[in-house]
Amino acid sequence: MIRQQSGLLAYAFLGLLLFVIFPLTLDPFRLNLMGKYLAFGFVAIGIVLTWGYTGILSLGQGIFFGLGGYMMAMFLKLEASAPELPDFMVWSSVEQLPLWWLPFKSAAATLILIVVLPVVIALPFAFAIFKKRVGGVYFAIVTLSLALTMTVLIVGQQGYTGGANGITDFKTFLGWDILGDRAKLVLYFIEITLLVLAMFLCGFIIRSRLGKILIAIRDREDRVRFSGYDTAAVKAFVFCIAAVLSSIGGALYVLQVGMIAPGVVGVVASVEMVIYAAVGGRLSIPGAVFGAILIGFSKSYLSETFPETWLFFLGAVFILVVLAMPNGLASVADRFMLRLMLRNPPSRKQ
Amino acid sequence: MQVFNGISLFTILLLMALGLAIVFGQMGVINMAHGELMALGAYVTYFTSRFFASHLPGWMDIYLFVAIPLAFGVTFLGGYLLERGFIRWFYNRPLDTLLATWGLSLILQQAYRTFFGAQEVNVPLASWLSGAWNVTENIQLPLNRIFIIGLTAVVAVGVYLLLYKTRWGLAVRSVTQNRAMSEAVGINTARVDAVTFALGSGLAGIAGCAFTMIGSTNPGTGQMYIVDSFIVVVFGGVQSLVGTALSGFTIAQSQTTLEYLMSGSMARVTILLLVIVVLYYRPSGLFSSKVRA
Amino acid sequence: MSKITRRKFMQASGSVAAAGAATTLGLWPMRAFSQETVKLGLLHSLTGTIAIAEASLVEAEKLAIDEINAAGGVMGRQITPVVEDGASDNPVFAEKAKKLLERDQVAAIIGCYTSASRKAVLPVLNRAKGLLYYPTYYEGQEQDKYVIYPSQEATQSVVAAIEWMAKEKGKTFFLVGSDYIYPRTCNKIAKPTIARLGGKVLGEEYAPLGHTEFSSIINKIKAAKPDCIYSTVVGGSNVAFYKQLKAAGLDGTKQVLLSTVVSENEIEGIGKDNAVGYYACMGYFQSIKNPVNEKFVKAFKAKYGQDKVIGDPMQVAYNSVYLWKLAVEKAKSFDPEKVIAASSGLEFDAAEGKIRVHATNHHVWKKVRVGRARADGQFDIVWESPNLIEPNPFPKL
Questions:
Q1: pLDDT per residue over C114-161, tens digit each?
Q2: pLDDT value at position C28?
Q3: Which of B53, B114, B208, C351 sits CB 3.0–4.6 Å from B38 for a disulfide?
Q4: Where do the domains of chain B lie?
């Protein structure tokens, strides 16, 4: 009851914040940064679903974030450098566009691949690995090593991926200048609309019968299995949803930031993404988005204010959140709501 | 020669992973700040060498024998305080530990940067450790590597004896297997936890000290080693120290062999993928003996 | 609150941090004190993996700013440095550059170390028409309208270094580098140069960035027995590389090794005795003997401590501030377009000797030198290019 009320309130508040308050009060620079933080919100929602509700902790969400990001960047880069080869290929003496770059000449193919490719990769991987009952810490470390593998691969194959430089310097999306302030505003609204859709989708999953099964899997997987459910398939499904969300987030990140770098794929970025969800509350979808906004904002703000010592504060924030608020900001909001309702009781209730 | 390189890398991986194997394997604590404890050990070594250079220049050659126990002692103490004041609040929430210790690792890195400077520091190598042992014309075995191999052997045997031949080791193992039962038979589990964690940290300190001989000492040193350490421990099967050793050996030998055959980046990618494939077939590690839910 | 008290408050708080906080919160209008001072952005990694090399550049830049302020500022205005942390993360560099240009309205940015961070900043500069001085040697292949490159691009050091080695030390080479763009480009320049001189490349190896295990590469080197090793290993890897080379018996007395990235700063971390006898090719060495350098070294040590050493990028960072000042004074304007136009052909009597900004390509004419590391961590300069070398960022190979 309380949970639901505060949940609704959180949604309402978040909606107000995203659609009204931010666009009205933030200047283009801050709003663009907000767009960057919100791209991580997609990942965080996925983590709520996989970690909070299903108990799968992936420390490799950066892989899918990077996948989506790189796909979008490849498309934009091809558009920016057409008809010639992307500049980094020229430096690395790659003379012909590699075959696997070809689909990204088309915007439609790129957009489809951003959604489909994560599934194609995540589904067999997750299904196989959950079938083998690799779970908990092992799964976390496997995904962590995958994130590391992907970083090393990207940095090592610079003729094809841009290497440590990443892919940068693009200007237009299908001829539309994406760097101007107006374009950024449009992109921001596209992003938050998609974000709200993602939140509804996940909210729907959680409230459905499937959601109950997820929680049951998290709490006692063997019992669910004994009841005749194919838990590996269910887990793989949820993992795929999180992967797709991350990929979409990555693609939007590239549009907002104007570049992609191997750093967002790596271990540090992947762990940070989990922290976004943890700060917001791993059981709360709006909480995850709040977490992404809050940590993103703190990072920018603290490093601007204390460029030489900001990591002290950021580290302290992480510890404090985990120590004092095991269920993140959402639990604090819940408690607050509870107190509010106790103070002016039954008359409000039917 | 390649074989020697493999063995050398193996001892380095083992030294890195031993502390983690105890903290993570025996206690189930995912300590992301473990790498920073290694860095602490490295900095202790650095300051010891500085102290010798300025106060006891004549004894410079043996400063390492002071630095090793000192690095162990300082990180042991650090680990003890860390467990009492921090880690023990997270015992029932293993994944939260991961996040909290991540925050801790950020703070520690920044602390090293603020107090010791962002630049690398140089830890001098004792003169008797530089140079190589010329076995034949073409085969030269670097002395510092031989020293690390020896050090690792001593540390590994020490840990083995401690865990399997002492009463305290028995207590540690029993707490790992069944906490409630151990408490019931009168083991002070809280103290066992603290000392176990401290021991794991102390081993990280020794590792950090040894790495000053071959690598760079800077505020970010710890992060370079932490993921590899986790991979070694998990690959070997979390609860088995022997598994950790064998896994370190397997990874080291394959890595040196592959590095000789292909580029460094590709060798690393191949190794990581191999680890993942093996974990797929042996979900609880290559050398785990028992299967538990 | 009048303008004066606001400014006084700023000075009293005395820190860039407070100014940053204030503008961030939007409490003060952005150009509140732009009449008396001019802001200069200093954008480097103060945290993260690259901080090892990059953090010290800020010190050199601040020294130059202090000196200029003490001498009356630029066109009568005091310079206020605004320090930002790029956190060794390319997108963060872009974010901070944007912040510096749009919110702080800095007149120019001195910043970046890795090419990756510079590439990330370029689109921001072009959008906001902001000016960047990039104080690090790099691989070339670039000439941006809004960037001045006061350090040596690859051909300036690589060609000189290879020619020197081939002439003095031998014609067979082994190329070792970290696996990213700078080493690969340098080697792309090195290989035809070696071929032109009748030399031979016996091997080319790359280690992943941050790698600390060089035994396999060293084995390959030992098997190949080259006359010279040309190294472009960067960062913390160097410490491992040099220590392991020495342990493997390939120390500076037995093996010729030349690096275009190891300056005095790196030697501090590598260890003086591990680097003894190896060579480096740089524009600047702390041991250069001329009055300007003596004054520079003295001022730096007085400000930051007697045990500090100064490497090539730090000196260039220091030069960058002066190059900007001179260009502003020549242009009589802080407008980036005019400053860039005025930079063309600008000469500066730097600690490394005279440098001259190229008429068209934004790089600088400069001398390069080969130094041999001594036991005290300094370099004996064994060769110096007779003339200023023309920058050629887009070499035809």
A1: 999 999 999 999 999 999 999 999 999 899 999 999 999 999 999 999
A2: 41
A3: B208
A4: 22-226
* Residue B45 to residue B211: CA distance in whole angstroms: 10
Residue C241's pLDDT is 93
Average pLDDT over residues A292-320: 91
**Which residues of chain A from 33 to 72 reach within 8 Å of chain C, CB to CB?**
33, 36
Is B259 in contact with B270 (CB distance < 8 Å)? no
pLDDT at site A5: 66
What pLDDT score does B120 carry? Answer: 87
For the stretch C355-367, pLDDT in tens is 999 999 999 999 9
- Contact B265/A152, CB-based, under 8 Å? yes
With 60 as the cut, is the pLDDT of residue C7 above it? no
What do you get for the CA distance between the two ends of chain A, in Å?
Answer: 13
Mean predicted lDDT score pLDDT of chain C: 89
Res. C31: pLDDT tops 70: no
What are the tokens at A103? 């689909």
Is the Cβ pair C47, B124 closer than 8 Å?
A: no
Yes or no: say if C17 and A305 are a contact pair by the CB < 8 Å rule. yes
Which chains, if any, share at least 3 CB pairs under 8 A with chain A? B, C
Q: Which of C21, C46, C92 has its CB closest to that of A308? A: C46
Chain A residue whose CA is closest to B292: A133
Please give the pLDDT value at position B292. 41
Give the gap in angstroms from C-alpha C354 to the nearest C-alpha of chain B. Answer: 29
CB B220 within 8 A of CB C48: yes
Confidence class of residue C197 from pLDDT cuts 50, 70 and 90? very high
State whether the Cα torsion B159-B163-B166-B172 is positive or negative. Answer: positive
Interface of C with B (CB under 8 A): 46-49, 51-53, 55-56, 179, 205-208, 210-213, 215-217, 219-220, 222, 235-240, 243-244, 246-249, 265-266, 268-274
Chain centroid to Cα C120, Å, comes to 17
CATH architecture of C154-282+370-384: 3-Layer(aba) Sandwich (3.40)
Alpha helix ranges (H) inside C248-306: 264-270, 272-275, 291-304
Whole-number Å distance between alpha carbons of B58 and C233: 35
Place A4 in a pLDDT band, splitting at 50, 70 and 90: low
Q: How far is B240 from chain C (nearest CA, A)?
A: 26
Task: Judge whether A291 and A112 are in contact, CB under 8 Å.
Answer: no
A327: closest chain B residue by CA: B96
Strands (DSSP E) contained in C94-171 are 108-111, 132-133, 147-148
Q: Do A152 and B268 touch (CB under 8 A)?
A: yes
> For the segment C274-321, what is each residue's pLDDT rounded down to a tens digit?
899 999 999 999 999 999 999 999 999 999 999 899 999 999 999 999
| CA dist., res. A253 & res. A256, Å (int) | 5
Mutate to test the interface with B, among C239, C242, C263, C273 (most CBs of B within 10 A): C239
Which residue from A minimizes the CA distance to B88?
A323
Whether B100 and A138 lie within 8 Å, measured CB to CB:
no
Q: What is the pLDDT of residues A32-85, one digit of tens each?
A: 999 999 999 999 999 999 999 999 989 999 999 999 999 999 999 999 988 888
For residue B251, the distance in angstroms to the closest alpha carbon of chain A comes to: 14
Q: With an 8 Å Cβ cutoff, are C123 and A259 in contact? A: yes
Class of domain C31-152+294-366: alpha beta
Preferred mutation among B38, B105, B122 to probe C, highest tally of C CBs within 10 A: B122
Hey, are the CB atoms on A140 and B98 less than 8 Å from each other? yes
Hey, which residues does C108 pair with through a beta bridge?
Answer: C40
How close B249 gets to chain C, by Cα (Å)?
15
User: pLDDT tens-digit profile of C153-176?
Assistant: 999 999 999 999 999 999 999 999
Asked whether the beta carbons of C366 and C156 are under 8 A apart, the reply is yes
